[in-house]
Structures are given as C-alpha cells and as structure tokens.
Amino acid sequence: QFQDGATNLGTKTYTFTLGALAATLSENFDGVVAPALPAGWTATQGVNVAGAPLWVTSNAGTPAPVADSAPNAAFTQDPTNTCDNQLNSPVVMYGGGSQLTFRQNYDIESQSATAAYDAGVLEININGAGWVDFVTAGGSFVTGGYDHTSINSTFANPLLPSRPNWSGVTAGFVSVAANLPAAGVGLPVQLRWRIGSDNSVSHAGWRIDNVAIAQRVCS
After folding, report:
1. Is the dihedral of CA 103, 69, 57, 60 positive or negative?
2. Do residues 138 and 210 make contact, with C-beta atoms less than 8 angstroms apart?
3. DSSP string covering 139-199, please?
C-alpha cells in the first residue's frame, strides 16, 4: 500500500523470487583455445552434403559480435548446401524448477517473418530416450523462444518435417531463458543446438555463448 501523508495512493502487488541461484552447468567457451570445444562438449553431424565443418569455438568472423563474453563463442556456419550440424552439451542432472539460459547471435537464411529456409532448434535427450524438440519434451521458453513457426518443405532441409525454429537475423546477441522439462528432473540429460540448412544459399551462421542451467535454492 502506498501512502502520502493522510492520502492513500492505492495498492500494488509485486512478485519477488527468493533464494540463491545454484548452477548445474555454466559454460562461456572462453577457457579453451579456438577452435577446440570445452571438455564434455561435442560436435556431431547428420547429413552433410555441404562438406561443412563441425561446430567449433570461434573468436573471429561473422555474424558479429563474435562473442557475448570475450573471446570465444560456439559457432557453426549456415552453409550453402544440405547440412545438419549439432552442438551437444555434457550430460547433466538438474533439480525441479531449473532454468536454462544462454545468449545467441545468428544470421540464418529465412523465407519470411514466419517461415524458414534454414533453421536452428534446441533439442533434449532425457535419460538416453532419444533426441526430441525441447518444447515437445515439456520445456517452455520464458524469453527468446522460437521466432519462426515453419520450415519451407521445398529444399530438403534435414530438420523437416516442418517445426518451430529460430531463423533470420538477430543483429547481435540476444537472451534465451527456458524452463527445463519436469520429465528430466533427477535424470541424466543432454542438450543440443542443431542447425539444418537446405540445398541452396548460405548465410553467416549461429553463435551460442554463456550457457547455464540453474535453480533457486533456499538462501
């Protein structure tokens, strides 16, 4: 309740989140020499007609800026031909109410404000059951979620059939925060950032930095 002398100015309700943040995973990609990935992080590929390189750490090139925290970020090209590039986190275990945060900067070929030609997605593997989209598994984006709703079906993007995704240009690093699936609590879990490019036209690519998983614990 707000009061100015004898005048009642009304009431306002606020929500305060209590407790300290306890990190399960924290990675800024700065403790290695580019192009090496940190310990526990791996890069894999599906189809690669493009002959494109794997995900690496990078401190140069485009899209710029090259890192959210200098000098490095994880990086993949968005190549000119069909490619399925995957960045895999270490296996982690998290508690109830945990949240994933990271920063991303991408220039990925899009068709329109809603449809993508090339696309980036976040996937999760819970207890070795197989990779599924983060949202399909029960996760939810708080900020910075997928900004495209579909993938063009004409040019052999390896992420087809169509699905929500990130595409277009962020013009710098932007924040993503997401609630981790309740189905993964207390189980071994792995995350992966996956880009699918179609069989024509290249763009600059995708950068990921400052990845963290944390939960609120009693102060």
Report:
1. positive
2. no
3. -EEEES---B-EE-SSS--TTPSP--BB-EE-SS-EEEEEEPPGGGTTS-EEEEEEEEE-S
Summarize pLDDT for 60-110 with one digit per residue, the tens: 999 999 999 999 999 999 999 999 999 999 999 999 999 999 999 999 999
Predicted model pTM: 0.91
DSSP string, 19-34: SEEEEEEEE-S-SS-T
The gap between the terminal CA atoms of the chain, to the nearest Å, is 27
Do 210 and 38 meet the contact criterion of CB atoms below 8 Å apart?
A: no
Q: Which residues contact 5 (CB under 8 A, 6 or more apart)?
A: none
Identify which has the larger pLDDT, 17 or 178. 178
Tokens representing residue 42 in the block: 């791996």
CA distance 189 to 129: 10
What is the sign of the dihedral through the CA atoms of 12, 14, 177 and 123?
negative
C-alpha 77/C-alpha 158 separation (Å) is 15
